[in-house]
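thread: overnight batch results

M.L. [08:02]
morning all. the overnight job finished for the chain we discussed friday. pasting input first so we're all looking at the same thing
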Amino acid sequence: MVPVNRAPRLDPPRVRHRPVPAFKRWFGRGKRRVGYYRLRDGLRNRLREPGFRRALRSTDVFLVGHPKSGNTWLAYMLAVLLSDDRDGEVNLYNVGDYVPFVHGRDHAIADYDHLPNPRVFRNEYPRYPRRYPGTLYLVRDPRAVLVSFWHMFATMFDDRDMTLSRFVDGYLSGGAPFDGWHRHLGRWDRQVAAALRRAEGGERICIVRYEDLVADREAALQRVADFTGVVPAAEVPAGDVPAGTSGRLSRAVARGSFEAMQELEGRHGAEAYAGRARGEGRFIRQGQAEGWKEEMDPADAARIEAAFGSVMERAGYPVS
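M.L. [08:03]
and the structure it wrote out:
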């Protein structure tokens, strides 16, 4: 039986981390330059791959995407679908009980043998992507991604001195704060280009655009449900949804509105924050496709476009 509706941990507000000593930052950069982390991770991956392959099922699907691309949003709607949740037991805090995150730890799928088929896992750091039976790749305009990522960083670390411009600088260069926080994260352009190549190469991968979810949540979620095999072809609608529609799908679509999720976060919290900086930031923010235009300096947007322009256009994001 899947555990549901855990009580939120009432952690005290997270205080700002102490600055990392200069010698530790220098030592870490040196290890990256000589390939220490790449060698270490490669060895770990080889040792853990047999266990991953044993635990893998042919119906497994992996939800992959750059952080702040809507991964939790889509995972929450999928959790409602997977569990046929009619009683509101799924929320943004316990969503990992239904759609577990295994970021960078693909072998951890072995811990979820109790979940029925199809299982969906979230992974922002996939280790064996070409072994995945099915991949949902969620992509979002990188300008919006970095604005949302910046807000998340400021809330998680209570760092109000990090400007968006400095954040973009660090992301593009691999400098602070990305020389420590999310140091294993692949840049947006490299991630998206790899996903597009896999799709063009015939792998079973479904590219989902965040903006399509915003524009028509029901149509986009139906496509995702068809890909994962969550919703049976013939399903008797439940009494709380319009006739002629899938009860599970309509329920997930309705509960996936940003207004509904903001209210849900207010009652239960969100797994990514888990009580950190409570009251000073929300995980569910605006949910707008082009809200970045109100917060990002045009010069910062131009730098992102210069770095990612060719991949942005391939993914359907025109540059200025």
